[in-house]
Amino acid sequence: MEMGLRGINTVHGRLENLTEDQSFVSAFDGVTSRATLALGPTLALAARFVPAGGVAFLWKGSGREREMLEDTSWRKWWDFDGLMGAGSGNITVARFTRT
User: Fold this and answer.
1) Among 17, 34, 40, 73, which has the minimal tally of Cβ within 10 Å of its Cβ?
2) Is residue 29 situated within a structural domain?
């Protein structure tokens, strides 16, 4: 929780529980999410919090490709920027930029 970074504010909570707070609309440069909803609904919610140019980092397992193809509604708000490995398992971090 403490990394000694300056100029960074964090909100620890589930996206779906934060949607009622109007002060969060377009208030963040980025979001990260793990163990959450499927990719499409997660990015739809995240679009509320992140303005154009911001980023989303989603920790996803083996179902990532299927989720990206089955529900492409996320493309309305986000560009897919690529994947980063996370450890030695099948977990990857998918990076998206808000359009």
Assistant:
1) 17
2) no
Q: In whole angstroms, what is the distance from residue 16 CA to residue 68 CA?
A: 19
Using CA atoms, how far residue 14 sits from 34, 36, 45, 46, 65, in Å, is 10, 8, 10, 10, 23
Q: What is the pLDDT of residue 5?
A: 76
Total domain count, the chain = 1
Asked if residues 61 and 94 have their Cβ atoms less than 8 Å apart, the reply is: no
pLDDT tens readout for residues 19-52: 989 999 999 999 998 878 899 999 999 999 999 9
Does 89 fall in a domain?
Answer: yes
Return the residue matching tokens 């980023």. Answer: 55
pLDDT of residue 8: 83
Residue 43 forms part of a structural domain: yes
Mean pLDDT estimate for the chain: 90
Is 94 inside a domain boundary? yes
Q: Do 54 and 30 form a contact (C-beta atoms < 8 A)? A: yes
